[in-house]
Amino acid sequence: MKTRDRILHASLQLFNEQGERSVTTNHIAAHLGMSPGNLYYHFRNKQQIIAELFEGYVAEMEQSLALPQGRALDLDDKAGYLEAVAAVMWRYRFLLRDLEHLLASDAALAARYRPFSRNALQAIEAIFQGTIDAGILDARYADASVLALNSWLLMNSWVSFLCTTVLNDAQDSLTLQMLQRGVYQVLAQERGLLSEAARPRVEVMLQTLYADLPADPS
After folding, report:
1. Residue range 91-117, pLDDT digits in tens
2. What phi and psi values does residue 209 have, to the nearest 5 degrees?
3. Are 109 and 103 in contact (CB under 8 A)?
4. What are the residues facing 137 on neighbouring strands?
5. What angle, rounded to 10 degrees, do the helices at 107-133 and 144-161 form?
6. Both ends of the chain: CA-CA distance in Å?
7. What pTM did the predictor assign?
8. Is 112 exposed, middle or buried (0-12, 13-18, 19+ CB in 10 A)?
9. Which three-class secondary structure state does DSSP give residue 77?
């Protein structure tokens, strides 16, 4: 692995495990056993590292939300979207946990985030419209734009909800299963809109994604 890629990989690991605000470039360099000067040769500062990690998040999320080419959506696609989006959210969970702070701290990142968010929302709406057109959701009741907006809001706030409301120690306790529960919440909003043909398969997906959240210790 090239040094630049090693820095990105280590930064992502540390940001996810410890929180971006707790990790400095010196911490990253020490983790890699390199001098700070060597790190600065590749990245001028931590903001530049975050910006490049964000571009990786954008690329992977856009790929995860791409529509199939030349055919209609089916239930296999729906399962694939859920799995792919959960994986991307887990891989870049520090971005979701600290999103408001990161955007407030870096005007360039905030400017880059706005078109990404709008494009992602359009892609999700197209997916929901595809599920309506395919008869997975009942066209009489399902509204693709409403479902897309609710889903995007939930996806972007779920990690923050876990860390601020559910967990006492978010750095140590956040798990993939807890994150998948957020995807479950997105899918669960469709229960009353499903066609009878799609319902059994979606119920299986819901069972797979569901995870109990930690009980309130109080």
Report:
1. 999 999 989 999 999 999 999 999 999
2. -85, -25
3. yes
4. 194
5. 130
6. 46
7. 0.91
8. middle
9. helix
- Is residue 206 within 8 Å of residue 78, measured between CB atoms? no
What span, in angstroms and rounded, lies between the C-alpha atoms of 195 and 66? 23
Name the one residue in this structure whose structure tokens are 């690329």. 59
Q: Are 132 and 139 in contact (CB under 8 A)?
A: yes
- What DSSP designation does 71 have? S
- CA–CA separation, 37 vs 140, rounded Å? 61
In whole angstroms, give the CA distance from residue 181 to residue 206. 9
Tokens standing for residue 37: 């000067």
Contacts of residue 100, Cβ cutoff 8 Å, sequence gap at least 6: 160
Encoded tokens for 54: 């964000």
Backbone Cα Rg of the chain: 19
Residue 170: the pLDDT is: 47
DSSP structure string for 115-154: HHHHHHHHHHHHHHHHHHHTTSB-TTT--HHHHHHHHHHH
